[in-house]
Structures are given as C-alpha cells and as structure tokens.
C-alpha cells in the first residue's frame, strides 16, 4: 500500500515531467496539485486524530486487535504510561511536520515530492507505533501453541518501519552522491551500496519471516536471520554516520576557508551559503542515522527476548523501548527530510530588537547619516537631487505581480509568448502613468500609490526580452532559483494564485526592486515618439504616441553638467547605483537574461553589470535554463564592448567615453562572467544546494593545496 501511494504521489506531482500526445511538456495544473495536498493534509489530520485521541477516549482493553494479555508488573505499567505520553507528543509533532510539508504544495520537483511523501509515510508509521505503545496487546499475542508472537497489526507496522528507513536512506544517498560528484573527490559513497543492499534484504527476509512465523511456525527460524541482518544494519548505520560526519566536516572546513579567502562579494556570498549548509548538515545527518541505528539495536534486543526467553519471563520493557526509539527515529527522519526540502540555509539574521538597538547606537556614534550620503554625491545639487529621486522609485514584488495580472484587462491582446518589454512600456506603462494623480510620472509612483521606496535589488534587463520572462526572472530571484523556466507557466490563472501563495508564506512579496521600465519616467523621455519598427507582434499596429505635454529631457538637454543633461533620467545609472548602494549596502544586482542572451549586447546593460562589479555589489544572474546557458556560453566569449548597441546611438558614445581601455574592459567583463566564481559558474552551482557545497569545498581544497605548496 505504501509503495502504491508513493508511486502514485511521484507520478502525479512531478511538475516538469508531464507531456502531451505530441511529446511537449504540459503546464502543471496547480489547482489539482493544491487539492491533492489539501486532501493529504486532511487525511493526515484524521489519521493522527484516530491514533492519538481514540486510545485516550477508550480505556485500554476495550479496543483489541488480538488476544488480551495479563497486565505486567507495576513498574512496567509506569513505563508503558510514559511511553504512551512521549509517543503522543511525538505524534503531535509529526502532525505539524506533515502540515508544514504538505501545505508547501508548490514544491513539486520529483525529488521534493519524494521527500514530502517520505515525511507523510514516516508520520503515519509513528501513529501506527503509537497504537502499539497505547495497546501493548496489539504488539504481542498468544499463538495456538501458547507461545507469544507478533500480531498481524504489529507485523505491518514493522515492515512499514523498514520500508521508511530504506526510503530515507535513498534520499541521503542521493545527497552524498551529488556532493561527491561536485567535490570531484572520492568520499566513500560506494560503501552506501552495501547498506542499501542490507536494507532491502532486511525488508524481504523480515517480511517473509514475520508473516511466515505467524501462519506457519516452521518458518520461525527466519527470525534469527532477521536479527543477524539487523545487527549488521546497526553497525552499517553507525559506519555511515561516521562517514557522513567526516564528509560534511571536511566540506565545511574547505568551504569556510574559501569564504574567508574570497575577494569578490559574489564568491563570498556563495561560499557563505555553503558554510551554513555544511555547518547544519555535519551534525544533522549523523544524528539521523544514529537514531536509526539505536532503533534497530533495540529491536534486535526485543526479538532476542521474544524468541529466546521463557514465555513466563517476557516483559514489555524491551517492546516499549523499541517503540519509543522507533517513533523518535521516524520523527527525526521526517524532520530531517523536511529540513532538506524546505529550509533555506542562509546566515542567521539578528533579532529585530537587536537590529534596532544596533541601528540606534550606530546613529548615536555617527551623529547623522549624512556621511553615508556623501559617498555617492557629486557636489552638484540638482544632479544629486535627481539621482536620489530616481533611486527611490522601487516597486515591490507584490505590485509587480498585480501589474502583470492586470495586463489582460489593460491590453486585451496581450500574449506572453510574443510581447516584449518595449511593447508593454508603449501600450500599458506609458498610458497608465499619463495624467495620473501624480501627474505624468514614473509608473513606479502609480503602482506604489506615491510612496518612495529605496530598492533592495536592482534589475538589469533588456527591453527586447519578453515581458513575461522579465517578471519570471524577478520571481525566480525572490525564490532563490537560478532559472525562470519553471516560473513562466505559473504566471497565469491558478498558477499565479499558487505563486502568490508561495511568495506570501515565504515572506517575499514585499521585496523591493528597481526596474528601469517602471522607475524611469517615460513621459520625460521617449513617450512622444514611436519608432516605425515597434509594430505590435499580435495586431501588427503601431502604438499611438503619448499626447502628454511633459517636457522631454535627453542627454544633451539644458542645463548641463560635464556635457550631460541634469534633468535627464537616462544618463545617471552609474551615479544612481552608487546612491542606492550607499544608502542600502545590502542591495544586490539581478541580471535577468533573455532567451537569446541579447542583454550582453546592450551597452547600458553591460555598463551596469561592470559598474556593480566595480562597486563590489552582490550580483546574481537569472537565466531561462541551464541548457540554454550552455548553448550560449561559447558565443558569449566573443563579446566586445565596441560592438554593443543602444536605442540611442549617443548613449553608446557616452558609455565608451567613460572606458579608457576597451580591451581591458572586455577582459574584466569576461572574467566577471566566466571567471572562477563568476556569474556563469555561480549560476551552474545554483541548481543544487549540495552541488554548491561540493564546488565551494573543491575550491577551498585547491586553495589549501596552493597555500601549502607556497
């Protein structure tokens, strides 16, 4: 039954593995995914209620699954009572783990689906064991020959226990294999194949032995084989726990070295994530396997007493000890699996009160924040005022998703497969911000109802990219995903509801982004003229020019500062980035790459990427998919700044005028993109947290060898 549930769960929840009759991927039906999760959650609540509440309502002896037994000594009764209380507490904790994992129903990759089912099945096993602890007669019963044996109910619980341990072991084995592959060093994972064989063999032999001993006493001798196999499993679990301790301690030490020695913020950020991941795993994984070993060891002791001791001297103490240890091991496995699938390993943030006190005392020591402002100011008051005005036009992710959801109403012919960002700017952003209550303003003011927000992240993107890809890239950044292919089909209908639900529960909807198409006032620049090559890809019509009377400011419009217009909003990106970074040092750059990687041919985009790197701003590249990245890597190596383009040719000349040595600039950009710890490498590593740990540990290992040689 458990295998059937698992198989059906995996088949129904692998979000990216469903195909239509023509072999094309079908978008996930998020409504059905949510319904299945809610159904499983409701079923778990019912099962937990039956397992926990029924024994409390009905006294022991009124609910029987087999022949009643005599009540043990007074000491054993107290032990049974305490085990019942403890397993009740563990059962409630397991219910919380199930609800936590099942209600995060948007996590539907095959691996995470397997983990979520493992959590559910582990907790069901705990509730079954709670029945055994509450009603010891369900575990032991008299046979026709007057000897004690396991009831059918207990046999099913035991087989279920072995199956769940095997399933949990496969999850651990998957992680260690990925770590070994990323580390490019042998970590002894081959030994895990032996333990995998032992688990499988124990399930097979124990099933035959217990069922056979119950219906055919001549198969009773197989119980001895079960004890021998389980004894080897205990030793093997302890060996693997030792192995995992060594593996994660080694990975942690090398990752810590890499984090300390990394010079670039992007490298240090990745290394820090690896450090915190390995710091947690170096004791979580060994603890998990050690509890499993203890449970199997107590089971061996119980079987020894059950089958070798005199029937008159059999006590329930070993049985109670095994049931409690098994419940504890199962609950910890469920917690550990929940941890692997749902927790974001990141540096711990200070408590809110602690952060407030630190800010207060820092303010007292500095006197004012003016010293921070002067880091970016040029000394020209009008230029600096316009720069800071631009910097405070952030939009929240919530507002961005609401805007995207409103597109079908504002633009009935909107097609996410065809319309680019420039189409949305001309046909939606400019009309919605023209004549608003804030005047002919930037769309960010309209979307945020006049509030000025300092962004936490700045998005670098190309207007030639599909607008849906831009929004998906921002969402992927909020969810800490390296690619946005899986997000695209979630931006419509039930998918959007599911996405907003996920972002809400992860507290991501209020992340603030600076996106030029919203944050720049288009009425002060491009709105009055529509180039002839901007026909709508669906209707074929040319958008109407904006009729607003707002004054236009180009890069050469008076008044000037060093030959550049003071009031123009399209010539201050470098100063604006400095302003944002000075006012918010935690601000990072999100590089939203289009499917064709045209972003790297746009002069302003490359200039922004280089400027962020020069300022030591943390950078993150979001791509369509890893396969798409590999397809364009060779082409990216041939990029030259002299060949890059911009909508306004004067912008290219302006950017090139700031570059003293174009060849050196090209080399710096290529190193930023392809260098050790560069954007491409970081993007590759972002596809798997364990692979990230392995790659960072490998860099730290090579760094330690180099320092030893030197």
Description of the structure:
With 710 residues, this protein is mostly helical. It folds into 2 domains: 2-342, Rhopdopsin 7-helix transmembrane proteins (Up-down Bundle); 380-674, no CATH class. 62% of the residues lie in helices and 4% in strands. The chain has a 5-stranded mixed beta sheet, with helices on both faces. The longest helix has 44 residues, at 265-308. It is elongated. Residues 1-25, 59-72, 142-146 and 342-371 have low confidence and may be disordered. The chain crosses the membrane at residues 37-57, 77-99, 111-132, 152-172, 192-215, 221-249, 287-308. Keywords: Membrane, Transmembrane, Transmembrane helix.
Brief characterization of the structure:
It contains 27 helices and nine strands.
| Percent of residues in helices | 55-70%
CATH secondary-structure class of the largest domain = Mainly Alpha
**How many structural domains does the protein architecture include?**
2
Head-to-tail CA distance between termini: 61 Å
Task: Tell me the overall shape.
Answer: elongated
Rg value: 31 Å
User: What is the strand arrangement across the widest sheet?
Assistant: 3-5-4-8-9
The oligomeric state is: single chain
And the CATH topology of the largest domain?
Rhopdopsin 7-helix transmembrane proteins
Number of helices: 27
Structural class: mainly alpha
Ranges where pLDDT stays below 50 over 5 or more residues in a row are 1-25, 59-72, 142-146, 342-371
The CATH architecture term of the largest domain is Up-down Bundle
Average pLDDT rating: 76
Instruction: Tell me the strand percentage band.
Output: under 5%
Number of strands: 9
**Major β-sheet, in short?**
5 strands, mixed
Keywords: Membrane, Transmembrane, Transmembrane helix
Transmembrane segments: 37-57, 77-99, 111-132, 152-172, 192-215, 221-249, 287-308
């Amino acid at each position: 039954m458990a295998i059937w549930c698992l198989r059906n769960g995996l088949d129904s929840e692998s979000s990216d593995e469903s195909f239509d009759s023509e072999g094309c991927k079908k978008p996930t039906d998020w409504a059905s995914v949510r319904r299945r999760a809610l159904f499983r959650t409701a079923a778990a609540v019912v099962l937990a209620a039956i397992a926990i509440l029924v024994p409390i309502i009905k006294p022991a002896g009124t609910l029987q699954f087999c022949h009643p037994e005599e009540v043990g000594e007074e000491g054993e009764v107290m032990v049974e009572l305490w085990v019942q209380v403890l397993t009740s507490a563990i059962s409630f904790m397991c219910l919380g783990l199930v609800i936590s994992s099942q209600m995060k129903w948007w996590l539907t990759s095959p691996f995470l689906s397997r983990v979520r089912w493992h959590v559910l099945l582990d907790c069901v096993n705990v509730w079954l064991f709670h029945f055994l602890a509450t009603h010891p007669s369900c575990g032991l019963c008299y046979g026709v020959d007057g000897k004690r044996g396991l009831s059918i109910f207990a046999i099913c619980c035991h087989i279920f226990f072995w199956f769940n341990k095997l399933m949990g072991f496969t999850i651990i084995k998957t992680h260690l294999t990925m770590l070994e592959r990323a580390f490019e060093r042998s970590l002894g994972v081959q030994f895990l194949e032996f333990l995998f064989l032992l688990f499988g063999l124990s399930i097979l032999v124990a099933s035959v032995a217990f069922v056979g001993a119950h219906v055919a006493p001549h198969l009773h001798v197989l119980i001895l084989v079960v004890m021998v196999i389980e004894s080897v499993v205990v030793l093997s679990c302890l060996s693997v726990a030792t192995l995992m301790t060594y593996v994660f301690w080694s990975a942690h030490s090398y990752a810590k070295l890499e984090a300390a020695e990394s010079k670039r913020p992007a490298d240090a950020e990745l290394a820090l994530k690896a450090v915190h991941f390995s710091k947690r795993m170096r004791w979580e994984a060994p603890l998990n396997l050690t509890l499993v070993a203890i449970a199997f060891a107590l089971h061996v002791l119980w079987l020894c007493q059950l089958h070798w001791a005199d029937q008159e001297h059999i006590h329930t103490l070993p049985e109670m000890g095994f049931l409690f240890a098994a419940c504890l091991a199962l609950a910890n496995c469920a917690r550990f699996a929940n941890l692997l699938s749902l927790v974001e390993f990141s540096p711990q943030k200070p408590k809110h009160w602690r952060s407030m006190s630190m800010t207060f005392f820092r303010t007292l020591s500095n006197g004012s924040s003016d010293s921070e402002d002067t880091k970016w100011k040029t000394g020209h008051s009008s230029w600096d005022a316009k720069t800071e005005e631009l910097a405070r036009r952030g939009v929240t992710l919530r507002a961005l998703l609401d805007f995207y959801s409103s597109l079908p109403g504002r633009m009935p012919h909107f097609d996410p497969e065809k319309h680019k960002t420039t189409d949305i700017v001309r046909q939606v952003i400019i009309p919605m911000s023209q004549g608003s209550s804030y005047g002919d303003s930037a769309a960010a003011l309209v979307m945020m109802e006049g509030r000025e927000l300092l962004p936490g992240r700045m998005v670098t993107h190309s207007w030639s990219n599909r607008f849906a890809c831009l929004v998906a890239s921002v969402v992927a950044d909020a969810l800490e995903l390296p690619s946005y292919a899986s997000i695209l089909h979630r931006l419509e209908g039930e998918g959007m509801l599911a996405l907003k639900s996920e972002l809400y529960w992860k507290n991501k909807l209020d992340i603030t982004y600076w996106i030029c198409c919203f944050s720049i006032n288009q009425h002060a620049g491009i709105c009055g003229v529509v180039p002839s090559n901007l026909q709508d890809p669906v209707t074929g019509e040319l958008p109407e020019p904006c009729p607003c009377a707002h004054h236009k400011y180009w890069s050469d419009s008076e008044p000037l500062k060093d030959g550049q217009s003071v009031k123009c909003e399209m010539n201050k990106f470098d100063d604006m980035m400095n302003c944002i970074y000075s006012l918010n040092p935690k601000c990072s750059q999100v590089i939203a790459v289009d499917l064709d990687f045209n972003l790297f041919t746009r002069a302003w985009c490359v200039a922004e990427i280089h400027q962020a790197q020069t300022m030591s701003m943390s950078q993150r590249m979001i791509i369509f998919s890893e396969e798409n990245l590999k397809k364009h890597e060779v082409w990216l190596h041939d990029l030259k700044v002299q060949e890059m383009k911009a909508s306004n040719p004067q912008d290219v000349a302006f950017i090139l005028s700031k570059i003293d040595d174009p060849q050196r600039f090209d080399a710096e950009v290529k190193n930023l993109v392809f260098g050790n710890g560069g954007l491409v490498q970081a993007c590759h590593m972002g596809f798997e947290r364990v692979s990230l740990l392995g790659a960072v540990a490998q860099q730290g290992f090579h760094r330690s060898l180099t320092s030893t040689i030197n």
